[in-house]
Each structure stands twice: as structure tokens, then as C-alpha cells.
Amino acid sequence: MTAAIAIQGLEVVFDRFRALKGVSLEVGEGQSYGLVGESGSGKSTLLKAITGLAPVASGTVTVNGKTLGKTRDKAFYRDVQMVFQDPYGSLHPRQTVDRLLQEPLAIHGIADGEKRIERALDEVGLGKGFRFRYAHQLSGGQRQRVAIARALILEPSILLLDEPTSALDASVQAEVLNLLEEVRRRRKLTFLMVSHDLAIITHMCERLMVMQNGEAVETLTASQLIGHRVSEDYTRNLLRASEGFVRV
Amino acid sequence: MSGDTLLEVDDLRVTFPTRTGLVQAVRGVSFSLGRERLGIVGESGSGKSQTGRAIMGLTPPQAQVSARKLAFDDIDLLSISPRQRRSLRGNRIAMILQDPKYSLDPVMTIGRQIVETLRTHEKVSKAEARERALAMLQAVQIRDPARVFDLYPHEVSGGMGQRAMIAMMLITGPELMIADEPTSALDVTVQLDVLKILDKLVAERGMGLIFISHDLRLVSSFCDRVVVMYAGKVVEQIKASELRDAQHPYTRGLLNCMPRIGFERHPLPVLDRKPEWAA
């Protein structure tokens, strides 16, 4: 199996702060890979470094066999798309859904916009009725569906998901997670998903990396995690925390 | 009313005027609270936060609050003057909000905010207020209170900010604490620390607690009793320990839709909302 994303010794430095300290990982084509850790562990920074939104100090990122340089070309952005955490912040407040979905098409010079927009909305379960609404006329779950539609409209092979459901209600979260699984199955997408919630990661991903302070703590398969076969105390703490509050 | 009942809510309604007519965010909610931990659970828009805000007296001015009874310690909250209401708010009834990033004053140091709360409600000298604020910061397990006292909210982490908020709310020794999603903005590990602190302080001080959250599992592990809200109404009231036997399909749906470690379900069950739930 070839690696869709291969990262070697990635360092990200903001001023003098080392946000990522030499992280390496490999995500196979069609795999779903999870990154877990608390805020400040560098998991979102890793995604941003892949897309070129964070200053990479050293290390290499290889996507679909191509090692990325300082700048990324259009083809990269067509192949790799990102869904952000906060659907309230990631959609333009003064653009209709139609306008939002046209943007990526315009950037990449894709002609059959009309059809693609309809298909993308259909695919995320929104339908045509939502096409000319503004973001503020949508619920959180619907907004996140629009964000997913915007990512899918370019037919990428890799989706980077940065806490895609943490701003949503539990019941809506289930719907969005199901949607993501479904599009992944249908389009054979590769997922790199960030979450602080171990349960979501084990539900969505086959492999995962636990991160802390910009470093990898350990790499596990979902079944190792489910079976509590973990070797690091930090992971054990995370597992305990995800079981909920226990009064002592 | 018996001496054990701290708060009585009977047929509480909160109505917002909108361009398209009146919207009832809360439609006849009733419950009573002793010195116990009560959870209010529901999705966004279920009216759980507006219920909390109505008790606190923080409903936006354009909204209408009505109730057959809304009484805290036999004081009728709807008929007292704004001045009397203010003397209760932050003093005997306190509220913890969701995100310390937004709910703390960004241009005031943490220490000053805590001292301000205290000096609004009690006549204490500046030096004593500082002492008590530092002690309170210690109580919420902030390791270096003297340092944190002089920091601005943006200089501390989310967990630290939320602890500071708890300190600020507890410093007046309230009898009723309303916590509106107190840990939703925090990391899982920090969540548990903050809950532990809250749990300990609520138990020690014998407060009544209303814990508002969308996370049914979390609420059931933290509270004695749970009120489940849907579309502005209470659909079920149940003891947390008996949640497994919940009757209402909405409650059961909320319980089931969360992914759990070790329970493989693809796709996850989703809520099949019935119009009669809202009726």
C-alpha cells in the first residue's frame, strides 16, 4: 500500500515556540488516521502544516508520493481539503451557500459548477432548498454539512478534519460522523482526523497517534486502544478521562 | 414549602418576540431543587440555557418571563425589584458560563475580577478581599495563586480560566449554583479536573447545583437527578442512577447516539425526531 500522507520529522516553530517537535507518521491510501491529544498538543498544527498554514521549520511532508516544498500548487489543494472545527467561523457570513460552494470551483477553474453544487448538496443531505441560504439561516449541523460539501466539491482524495463535530450537539454529531463515514466509503477517501475525544477517534479511525506537547506519545490501532493495550501513562489517563466522571 | 426546597419552578415560560411572531423558548418547565445536583440536558435550542438564565434573571430585556411560581428560598423572583434581584445574583445565586475566553473580562486581571465580585456583595477591605480571593484560587487548585491573581484571562489556559471563574462564583458562598456547560470548552482531561473541583466544593458547601449540558452521559455521572428537555419542554425527569431505564425515546436516543469505546456501531443510531415530542 502506498502512503497517501507521509510525514518525516516535522518541526513547526512559531517565533521561538516549538509547536511540533519532530513528528513522523504515515497514512495509507484510503485509511482513516486519528490524532488525539489535549489542546496545545500540536494536533491541529500538524494539519495546518500539511496545508501550508503553519511555518514548517524542518522535516518533510509527502502527499500522494509528492514531497511538498515551501509553497503548494493548485493541484495539491484540489487533492487535499480541510474541514474546520467551528462551522460558525468557517463559513463567510455574507455569502450564500451557493456562493460559498462556487468559490473553490472558481479558484480551480471548474466549469460544470451548477451540477456540482447540486450534487455536493445532495451528497451531504441538504438538498436544493438550502442553496440560497446564508450561514446564519442554518443550524450548526447544517453549517458543518455545507463545510463538508465545500471540501468535497473539488473531489479531493484526502480530507483533513479538524475536530469536525466538537461544536455540535451529540445527536447532530452522530449524523455528521455517519455522513463522513459514508462519503469516505463511497469516494474511498483518506481521512486525517483530529479530535480530543477518544471515543470519536476509535469510532472513525483504524489507526491513531496520541500527541502531547508537540510530540507523539504513541501510535496505536483502534483495537489496541479498545482493548486498553496501551503502553504510555498519558494514554491511559486519556482513556480514563473518556470514561466520564467518577465520584471518589 | 419545606425548608429543604431551595428553588421552585412551576410552569416557567420564556417568550421572545421575533419578526415572525412570538417564539416560546421555554414552554412550561416545572421542577424543584433541594440541596442536590440537578442536571438539565437537551440539545441546542431545547431551552435549557434559557431556563437557567431565567432563574438567574439574565433573560434579555425584550423577552417575557412568566411562571406560576419561580421562587428561590421562598422569595418570589418575578415580583422583587431589580435591585433586590441584583443583590441575589452573584451573591446567593451564582452562574458559571461555558467559555472562560468570552465570559471573563479581557481587560481586567483575574484577581481584580474576583475581588470585584466579592466587594460588590460584601463590605470587606481591599487587603482582606485579596486574601480571600487568593484562598479561593487555592481552593480551585490553582498552584500559584499569587501569580495567577495578576494575570489577564488571555494569559491562562482554558482549564485555568474556568477554575478562576468557579473561584469568582464561589467566593460569595452562594446557595444555588447554575453551571451552564461549565466544561464543554475544555479538554477531556481538564474537564475531569474541573468537575472534581466543582463536585468537591458543591458537596463541602452544601449548595444546590443546576448543571446544564448537552452531554447526557456526563450529566448522569455527575448529578443526582436529570431533567431532559426537548423543544422548550421537560420530556422526562429521572434519577441519574435509573437513566438506563429511561422511558422517553428522546432520552434513549440521546444516550445511544454517542460513540463509545468498545462498542462498534456503524452507522451510529441517530435521533428520529417525532413531532409529538414537542407537542
TrEMBL record, chain A:
GO MF terms held by the record: ATP binding; ATP hydrolysis activity
Organism: Mesorhizobium hawassense
GO BP terms, alphabetized: transmembrane transport
Top-level lineage group: Bacteria
The ABC transporter domain, residue ranges: 5-238
Keywords per UniProt: ATP-binding, Nucleotide-binding, Transport
Name the UniProt record assigns to this protein: ABC transporter ATP-binding protein
Statement: the UniProt record of this protein carries the keyword Nucleotide-binding: yes
Family to which this protein belongs: Belongs to the ABC transporter superfamily.
InterPro entries cross-referenced by the UniProt entry: AAA+_ATPase, ABC_transp_ATP-bind, ABC_transporter-like_ATP-bd, ABC_transporter-like_CS, P-loop_NTPase
Automatic annotation (TrEMBL), chain B:
Domain ABC transporter: 7-256
Subcellular location: Cell inner membrane
KW Ribonucleoprotein (keyword) present: no
GO biological process: transmembrane transport
Record membrane topology: Peripheral membrane protein
Database matches in Gene3D superfamilies: P-loop containing nucleotide triphosphate hydrolases (3.40.50.300)
Cellular component terms (Gene Ontology): plasma membrane
Residues making up the signal peptide according to the UniProt record: none
Record's keyword terms, sorted: ATP-binding, Cell membrane, Membrane, Nucleotide-binding, Transport
Gene Ontology molecular function, alphabetical: ATP binding; ATP hydrolysis activity
Keyword Iron in annotation: no
InterPro entries (UniProt xref): AAA+_ATPase, ABC_Ni/Peptide_Import, ABC_transporter-like_ATP-bd, P-loop_NTPase
A Pfam family this chain is assigned to: ABC_tran
Family indicated by similarity: Belongs to the ABC transporter superfamily.
PANTHER family xrefs: DIPEPTIDE TRANSPORT ATP-BINDING PROTEIN DPPD (PTHR43297:SF2), OLIGOPEPTIDE TRANSPORT ATP-BINDING PROTEIN APPD (PTHR43297)
The protein's name: ABC transporter ATP-binding protein
Organism: Mesorhizobium hawassense
